[in-house]
Amino acid sequence: MNSQIEELACLYVLDQLGEAERASVEVRLTHDAELATAVRAAESALEDQVLALPRHEPSPVVSMRIEAEIEKLSPSETRASLFSTIARWGIAAAIAASVGTLAYLNLNPSKGSYQPHMVLVGLDSANSTLADLPMVQEPKDADASFIQLASLAQHYWKKPEELPVKLAPSGGGSGYALFDEASNQGYIAIRRLPAPEDGQRYHLWLLDTATGNVREAGILPAADSSRGLYFFSVEPGVPIRSDRLNFFVTAEDGSQGVPAQPRGKVVLGDRRI
Amino acid sequence: MANAPESNKVNEEADLLARVGAGDRDAFREIYTRYSSPLFSLGIRLVGNFGECEELLQDTFVKIWRNAASFDSRKSRPFTWAVTILRRTCIDHLRKRRIRPISAALPEDLLAESSVAGNGRRAAEAHEDSERLKGALAGVAPNQREALELALFSGMTQSEIAQRLEQPVGTIKSWIRRGLLGLRSTLNETAS
Question: Which CATH number is B78's domain given?
């Protein structure tokens, strides 16, 4: 094959041509079989090289963000979840394992009578510290809300220095619980939390500080690692005002099943706020 | 020349893009399933940062959704078309940040992370591909390889590459051609 044709084909495929030259090649491609063949060969070469790169996977949240974005572009279309067949728990588990950074959510309050928000409770070995996180806009549906929640949880997981609460630099564990009261879903992040003693399990609790009512929010997975970001959901119950929410973690006797009330030692956070 | 299975795949993906252009979400999901990992891998190579790359991948797929109706299979193959969108998105991003990779070498930590991405089988396949690429690259003349890598991964123009490598533009064009087509031959040889 003519090396000049090959050269042109390679530069075209590598997007190395100026606009006019590129347009000219595209016109030629409709009737110049030799050039078309050279372009196909260069495309195969490029694709081989891309496919042979060390493989990386984007986190599952990316696809959800794309769906949310294209939903905005085509509001008249019927909404269908991009990965509706994937259980939300599965997505959450994958997010917890991911190391990708997610989009930063602008937390500046917007004007208006209603301010959508999430609640973040900083947890260390001695205190719980509440922070209200105003959102720019109200999520349009449950998926958008979940994306927002997951994005924010991962953002703080990657950049704990940007947490809006201060955590005591003690020798014990620390972390935060991020909670969306509208969906009763949240994330808890833990760092440097010692493994539970034999026979014990760590339970997460949601507390209404005004009434003292407590709801169990899940058992932290027992893992070798003392750190992790975990999704949780709370059974819907009597709504709790966001300024009265608190979370804490206790070590409970694993042989007693799931206790209705916390009995064990508080290992993260505080029952008061 | 494309072989029959490759040609079938190209035609199938062109059909998928046509459906995406008509607003078919299922077709879009299929394109995402097929392209997200290789495009993300290329994006990592271009920008070297997972978080930024995820945002750029998102932008790329939104562009694919928006522009699928204008895809013309006479001008390019579907995957190459998607690669071009991703590269332009990443290069625009790097130019805005005024950051441009100086070396085409892949950071060791990214290589390490690739081994934990996905399931074991996929990671093993990815590792095998990576080794195959390393082997193939070793078979390409260093000057051709460097010119090709700069053209593909740095976002430099031919003139910039010529300046960088202190060679005439004509030589750079020739090196890029020999590097790209030579690499394909070597990859094919190692695969067979």
Answer: 1.10.1740.10
